[in-house]
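Q: I'm building a small set of examples for a reading group on sequence design. Run inverse folding on the following structure and report the sequence directly after it, with nothing in between.
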């Protein structure tokens, strides 16, 4: 991770996937 923006984007993506059921 180079910048904080990438970290925020990753966390947002992971959080979204974590809240949304896969099935």
């Amino acid at each position: 991770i180079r910048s904080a923006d990438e970290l925020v984007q990753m966390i947002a993506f992971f959080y979204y996937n974590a809240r949304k059921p896969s099935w």
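The chain has one helix and no strands.
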